[in-house]
Amino acid sequence: MTTHRTVLITGGAGGIGQGIAREFIDAGDRVILADRDAAAVSAAATGLGAEALTLDITDADAVATAFAALAPNGGVDVLINNAGILSVHGAVTELDPAAYRSILDVNVLGTFVMIQAFARHRIAAGGGGTVVNISSIGGRQPTPGMGAYESSKAAVDSVTRWAAIELASHGIRVNAVAPGPVLTPMLEQGMPAGSPARAAWSSRIPLGDLARVADIAPAVAYLAGPGAAHITGVSLPVDGGQLLT
């Protein structure tokens, strides 16, 4: 008999979060979308047939409360740390430190808070479980003006390895998927096919174009699944070969 999992996806109201959710729902898993935008996550969950959870991942008390509330109903088996912001841009000589802190709070601290709470939750349940963090190849390949975001994702890769080595003894695997630019509906509006901006990004990618959401979700599902049972501490690039250039 197949045992279906409960999968918690942060940043669930966004395009990548919804794409990942569809992958797990199609596999028969129970999916909970978490997002700090209550209206958006409720609409996304309704559209997908998932459950909605309003949650600020930087609020450790709220996160702990959420996991405690989920525990009596079987708890969470898989955590997908997809929430992140890419709204802060600026050169190293110009970026406001407060703006930099805002992106670190969500992308790094929020990821840590979720991993910590999930690990405590799983250890209390006897161990096991998997985490997949959404990182970025930007953590390894800098782009001028995007250093705040990219350094936050380099930290996500480091937190992934840190958690993986410490949680392995509890049977908890922790990995990451590191996309290049992903054509979410929002990004596709800003960089439609044929536009100079799209052409400029595509020229950096050996496979010829930016990733689709459908290119990212299967990698996430694989790392969260039994086929990756002996993989932990890895950050898997899904970038069309961009890191080769």
UniProtKB/TrEMBL annotation:
Residues 5-180 form the Ketoreductase domain. Keywords: NAD, Oxidoreductase. The keyword Endoplasmic reticulum does not apply. It comes from the Bacteria. GO terms for molecular function: oxidoreductase activity. The keyword NAD applies. SMART domains: PKS_KR. Belongs to the short-chain dehydrogenases/reductases (SDR) family. NCBIfam families: PRK07231.1. This is NAD(P)-dependent dehydrogenase (Short-subunit alcohol dehydrogenase family). It comes from Leucobacter luti.
